[in-house]
Amino acid sequence: MDPLKTLFNLSGGYADTQILMAISQLDIANHIALGNSKSYLELAKELSVNEEVLLYLLKNATGLEIFHELEESEGVFRHTPLSIALRDQEYRDFIMMKASIYSLRSWESLFSTLKSGNSDNKTLGFNSIWDFLNNNKEENEIFNRSMTTLTRRLGPTIVEKSNFMNFETVTDIGGGHGFLLQEVLRKNPHLKYGINFDIKNSGDGNTNEVTSTNVDKRYKTMVGNAITDEIPETDCYILKHVLHMFKDDVVIKILKKIGEKLKSNGSIFVYELYDEELKNQKSAMSHFYLHLMLVTGGVERSNKRWREVVQKAGLQIKEIEHIPNSVEMPVLAIIGCGPSGLVSCKSALESRLIPKVFERIVISVIPMIGQQRCVVNNKLIDLQKQLSSDNTPFIIISRNYADCVLAEKIHVVQHPITEIQGKTVWFANGESREIDHIVFANVYTYELPYLCEEVLRGLEYNPNDKLMPIVLHKSTIHPTLPNIGFVSWFSSAMFPIIELQVSWLALVFSEDLAPLTKEQIAEDKT
Ligand SMILES: C[S@@+](CC[C@H](N)C(=O)[O-])C[C@H]1O[C@@H](n2cnc3c(N)ncnc32)[C@H](O)[C@@H]1O
């Protein structure tokens, strides 16, 4: 390793940020059709940008595994899993939020924050990030959409773990777009009303989300500062990703204020990133620690620190829980303060993917490369690693597959692949072939390496049964594990069927369909 080269490259990290930002802002990923390629000349014309600069931007992006430049035609690019992800507004929003001007300026103030321990927004031209967002409509929209994306993924689990049954009214302090509060109201028809109390002008960003969907009539908004203004009086308070933006003294002040309003049977639910988990992650998420300090002056807290802070506010923690890490982010802690307690759930940390007590988890054998939304077959990953970087796998659903097989353009080989060297693929029977492309994953073997022996026995799992290795009710649920759903666990599972299974499981797990009894499941294993 040449230290000069390494340090030179590392110190250009800002370039990667800006490249990602430009790609997202121009929405380049949606200008290249899936499965197709496009030249930078065509792209420059469509995007009305300079050809030469675009060419080098795209070449640099390939170094980040975003787009792939065809070897045979310079300046022509096709998709990679990451560029495919960037076709999705959600992912572009996250990039634009992280690389927005207030974030960049906050990072410029690293040295000053290092000296003072405080976020230095004032010298950067705004009082706080909220002040900045209030005055920048577009940035505010992006911020709110990103927060809502996170909440949309985490919300249902959070709501499920928090018991609102004893309450009639609820305030979401710093509720942003209001998605979580909507979810709480939707799942708790007994609640009289919920107030989204947020410092940000709710006129634009906040109501955007809730007016576009059917706003619950019980949903109200109130603009206010939780530190200086009067807080509404309700039975229960929610604070999600809010208190981590403040130093201990401010958190104590806010909690004290809420505590004064809290009735004897009231509760405060605090949802924050799980500090202990963050510490184990070297790169991306530990940036987040610093990012939070620089942008907001706040900090992620350990369980111990939470206990101290809550105690100083004159409140008592009933329970700290770790909920499953469903959005590839560190596990959240739920803290219930005040006289009444929280429901319990097992720590996902103890058992990573599959908790000892089964939470509601759907296992699919369909690998979603690049999106990490489901469990990926380990063997496929091993093989993927052997592919040259020119051959980044991508997902495609093709109508022409059967025709290509008939025309012998695709050769079906029934032996497992053991090795890939350049264009040569070796099979388990010792034969090898020269190939142009590999079509993976049109046939699956079923493996459950993440489930323990005892559970597999309970499932009557038979790995040699290639048609249906586990016999399940509606091919999705087993009587011994009614809280775990299996999707596509039978031969020839096609997307429409998978879609139906997922929808059905979602209904069952969300209890929109009456929960199944063990007897029902056992009776009808088909
Ligand atoms: C990180 S966002 C979280 C939003 C939402 N709870 C969620 O998880 O999607 C923090 C929210 O706190 C609000 N906020 C910041 N300071 C506040 C204060 N002093 N009083 C009330 N709300 C505040 C911001 O406007 C923003 O909507």
Automatic annotation (TrEMBL):
Q: Cite a single GO MF annotation.
A: O-methyltransferase activity
Question: One Pfam match, by short name?
Answer: Methyltransf_2
Q: Which GO terms describe its biological process?
A: methylation
Domain O-methyltransferase C-terminal, first and last residues per copy = 107-315
Please give the coiled-coil regions recorded for this protein: none
The O-methyltransferase dimerisation domain extends over 9-83
InterPro entries, per the entry: COMT-like, COMT_C, COMT_dimerisation, FAD/NAD-bd_sf, Flavin_mOase-like, SAM-dependent_MTases_sf, WH-like_DNA-bd_sf, WH_DNA-bd_sf
Q: Which UniProt keywords apply?
A: FAD, Flavoprotein, Methyltransferase, Oxidoreductase, S-adenosyl-L-methionine, Transferase
Give the domain of life. Answer: Eukaryota
PROSITE patterns on file? SAM_OMT_II
UniProt keyword Transmembrane, yes or no: no
List, alphabetically, the PANTHER family matched. Answer: O-METHYLTRANSFERASE CICE, PUTATIVE (AFU_ORTHOLOGUE AFUA_4G14580)-RELATED
Can you say what this protein is called? O-methyltransferase domain-containing protein
Taxonomic source organism: Heterostelium pallidum (strain ATCC 26659 / Pp 5 / PN500) (Cellular slime mold)
Where is the organism placed in the taxonomic lineage, from the top? Eukaryota, Amoebozoa, Evosea, Eumycetozoa, Dictyostelia
